[in-house]
Design goal:
Strand content: under 5%
Radius of gyration: 33 Å
CATH topology of the largest domain: Helix Hairpins
Number of domains: 3
Helix content: 55-70%
Number of helices: 14
Distance between the termini: 49 Å
Structural class: mainly alpha
Shape: flat
Length: about 325
């Protein structure tokens, strides 16, 4: 087990224990909400204790960002990176919020924290896996907006219909007395959370009122929500497949562009890659020739013909020569 990082500065930056320590401070910063006012009953800590721990977390984040900036030759790339911008903006907001909160609590014993909701941005900025998942979800949302709009239009239409039916009747006094309340009742009903609390008053007045709610549950709960889930899952897999394909292509391209080691022998011509005239002219080390995909497919396609002709001397030799010529 490796206990010390390899290399110098960059080795410390990518060392797993350094990254785990960073994740510990991120979890500590997000978990302070349990101990800060208003805290979980019985777990409240003094203000100076929570402020001290948050200061340590912010110092760790600042050191991490400063360390990351040292690996950029062009500093403008560092300042244009979205994850660095989000982390630094959240860091500045936290410092301002802590300063204002400390002053107001010391002078008037009142204070309000507004930067706690931005703490998950540290996890997105420093955790590559979380950031990749958020990026995939963001790209998926663009494709399911149409289905979500259809669902909202369905809820709006049924909310307006219920408002016109039950606004001046006793069964509508609970959830259908205005449009916003009617819209919210059907929105919650689309998840089946307030059923049968919303439907019972109307159903008690007349059993025919159940038709409205049965049709809405059929269209909204069993059809539209299933379509939303299917579209979201399909697009999430599609985006993930595209990302993996792009990573595979990038690795293959990088492998093809990698120079050959001195003394390497090319695959087809049997010549050494580090020929002396090339070094004398300053052209560098020659790369071995790559076998193109078309020639490889032709060779694979010629295998059955070679197997059939392996007992026929002249035909087998001719097929072998055709496969080699590609």
């Amino acid at each position: 087990m490796q206990l010390t990082p390899r290399g110098s500065s960059y080795g410390w930056f990518v060392w797993k224990w350094t990254r785990w320590t960073l994740m510990f401070f991120v979890a500590l910063d997000m978990g302070l909400a349990i101990f800060e006012v208003p805290a979980v009953p019985g777990l409240a800590l003094p203000i100076f204790a929570t402020m001290t721990m948050e200061t340590l977390c912010l110092a760790m984040f600042a050191v991490r960002l400063a360390h990351a900036a040292t690996f950029y030759r062009d500093k403008r790339r560092f300042w244009r990176d979205k994850k660095h911008i989000a982390a630094m903006a959240t860091l500045v907001l936290n410092v301002v919020d802590m300063t204002v909160y400390g002053v107001t609590m010391s002078q008037w014993n009142v204070g309000l924290r507004f930067s706690r909701i931005f703490r998950p941005l540290y996890l997105i900025a420093f955790a590559h896996g979380v950031r990749r998942g958020v990026r995939t979800v963001r790209r998926t949302l663009r494709d399911i907006v149409g289905v979500m709009v259809l669902l909202w239009l369905l809820i709006a239409a049924f909310g307006l219909l219920a408002l016109e039916l039950y606004r001046d009747r006793p069964e509508g006094a609970l959830a259908f007395y205005d449009y916003m309340e009617s819209f919210w009742s059907f929105y919650v009903l689309s998840t089946n959370s307030n059923n049968p609390d919303v439907t019972i008053p109307a159903y008690t007045a007349s059993r025919w009122n159940a038709v409205l709610f049965v049709v809405f549950l059929t269209l909204g709960l069993f059809i539209m929500l299933s379509v939303v889930l299917a579209v979201a899952y399909n697009n999430y897999r599609k985006v993930g497949r595209r990302r993996r394909y792009a990573c595979t292509r990038a690795r293959l391209h990088q492998r093809r562009r990698r120079p050959a080691a001195p003394g390497a022998v090319s695959e087809e011509r049997g010549q050494r890659a580090d020929r002396t005239p090339g070094h004398v002219r300053g052209h560098g080390v020659r790369r071995p020739l790559q076998i193109h995909g078309q020639r490889a497919l032709c060779a694979v396609a010629a295998v059955p013909a070679l197997l059939r002709a392996q007992h026929v001397g002249g035909e087998g030799q001719a097929a072998l020569r055709r496969a080699r010529r590609g």
